[in-house]
């Protein structure tokens, strides 16, 4: 029985999406169950439901009922473990709630053999060759990924996050002041990973550098820019890519912009509506990707090729979107660097400067 777990993953329909996220994260069960005050099952919420809601324009402050699956799968009490496991395998789900005769949740069953991609089997490629022109004069002496935030290089934090998610094979694409990166990280053993280097003799772009990999990988690889700070679980991104059956998956961040003026809607020569300083919301490229081996064949060898151009070359059905609700910051300019420095301890724990 998972009595204690049920207390964590069950939420009420008028609670917020953020509460569903907390339930999923704290339980490790990949699901939140929406119930009434008598714990009768009303719906379920998975990480995928949350991200689909974000794609539709919702925020984590919307109510859980707005994204829940109102027809969740469930099994009656006293169902055998074997029957539950068979159903989960056929439905390709990792867990299923158990309900009594009145529809109340009394337990939840997990598929212990549910196959998920193993992080250690997949390579990570980090683009660390940029010159960081918008961060001059800082980058006149060091490459952008080596700028310190929280008392350590940004690139070191990125590598530590991958290592914490189980990814141990990392390739660094280097160019500008590459020797400083190689000297700091070496073979990666001091950081619990295996690091190899791809040296760009010229600027290759975020996709073009992948053509320099010594061998085509057997499994999808994760690619990220070397100036992106996030506390996302890279394992979830990889699993999402597999479930989508996509050739390439792009992580997306939500960017909000408040118009400093009142927006006017017209109907001919008449003012139909005035919205004072509206907030507009867009999805932007987060600089983190998963690419299947066969898709790499589309990248031309030895020439500059951007990741956006690569994605545009793929059929729409082969391009998956993974919206983030986690912390994300692209350190592209000085204000971004100042923001990262101010927020680092709160997001990633104590900095080395404070410890």
What is this entry, summarized?
By secondary structure, this protein is of the alpha/beta class.
Report on this model:
This protein starts with a helix and ends in a 7-residue tail after the last helix. Helix content is 26%, strand content 28%. The longest helix has 15 residues, at 334-348. The chain has a 7-stranded mixed β-sheet, with helices on both faces. It has a 3-stranded mixed β-sheet with strand order 1-2-3. The chain has a 3-stranded mixed β-sheet with strand order 4-5-6. With 355 residues, the chain is an alpha/beta fold. The chain contains 10 helices and 19 strands. It has helices spanning 3-9, 17-27, 47-55, 81-91, 154-164, 178-185, 205-208, 234-244, 307-313, 334-348; strands at 10-11, 31-35, 41-46, 75-76, 95-99, 105-110, 123-127, 148-149, 152-153, 169-174, 194-199, 221-225, 228-230, 248-258, 262-267, 270-276, 279-291, 319-323, 328-330.
Uncertain stretches of 5 or more adjacent residues:
none
| Total of DSSP H or I helical runs spanning 4+ residues | 10
Calculate Rg over CA atoms.
Answer: 23 Å
The main sheet comes to: 7 strands, mixed
- Summed over residues and divided by their number, the pLDDT gives a mean of 87
Strand content: 25-35%
Strand order across the biggest sheet? Answer: 11-10-7-12-17-14-18
User: What is the distance, rounded to the nearest whole angstrom, between the alpha carbons of the first and last residues?
Assistant: 41 Å
Order of helices and strands: HEHEEHEHEEEEEHEHEHEEHEEEEHEEH
């Amino acid at each position: 029985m998972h009595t204690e777990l049920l207390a964590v993953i069950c939420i009420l329909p008028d609670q917020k999406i953020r509460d569903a996220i907390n339930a999923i994260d704290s339980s490790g069960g990949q699901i939140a169950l929406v119930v009434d005050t008598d714990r009768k099952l009303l719906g379920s919420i998975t990480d995928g439901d949350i991200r689909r809601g974000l794609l539709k324009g919702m925020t984590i402050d919307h109510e859980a009922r707005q994204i829940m699956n109102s027809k969740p799968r469930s099994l009656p009490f006293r169902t055998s473990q074997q029957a539950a496991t068979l159903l989960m395998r056929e439905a390709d789900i990792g867990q299923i709630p158990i309900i009594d005769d009145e529809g109340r949740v009394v337990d939840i069953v997990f598929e212990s053999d549910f196959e998920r991609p193993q992080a250690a089997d997949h390579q990570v490629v980090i683009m660390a060759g940029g010159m960081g022109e918008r961060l001059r004069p800082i980058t006149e002496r060091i490459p952008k990924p080596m700028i310190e935030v929280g008392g350590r290089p940004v690139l070191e934090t990125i590598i530590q996050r991958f290592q914490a998610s189980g990814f141990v094979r990392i390739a660094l694409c280097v160019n500008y002041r590459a020797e400083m990166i190689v000297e700091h990280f070496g073979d990666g053993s001091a950081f619990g990973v295996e690091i190899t280097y791809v040296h760009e003799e010229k600027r290759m772009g975020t996709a073009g550098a992948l053509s320099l990999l010594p061998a085509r990988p057997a499994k999808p690889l994760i690619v990220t820019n070397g100036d992106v700070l996030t506390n996302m679980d890279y394992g979830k991104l990889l699993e999402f890519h597999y479930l989508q059956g996509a050739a390439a998956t792009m992580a997306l961040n939500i960017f909000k912009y408040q118009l400093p003026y009142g927006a006017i809607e017209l109907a001919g020569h008449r003012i139909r509506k005035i919205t004072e300083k509206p907030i507009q919301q867009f999805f932007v490229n987060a600089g983190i990707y998963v690419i299947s081996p066969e898709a790499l064949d589309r990248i031309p060898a030895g020439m500059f090729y951007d990741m956006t151009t690569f994605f545009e070359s793929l059929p729409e059905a082969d391009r998956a979107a993974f919206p983030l609700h986690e912390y994300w910051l692209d350190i592209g300019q000085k204000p971004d660097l100042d923001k990262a420095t101010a927020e680092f301890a709160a997001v990633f724990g104590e900095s080395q400067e404070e410890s």
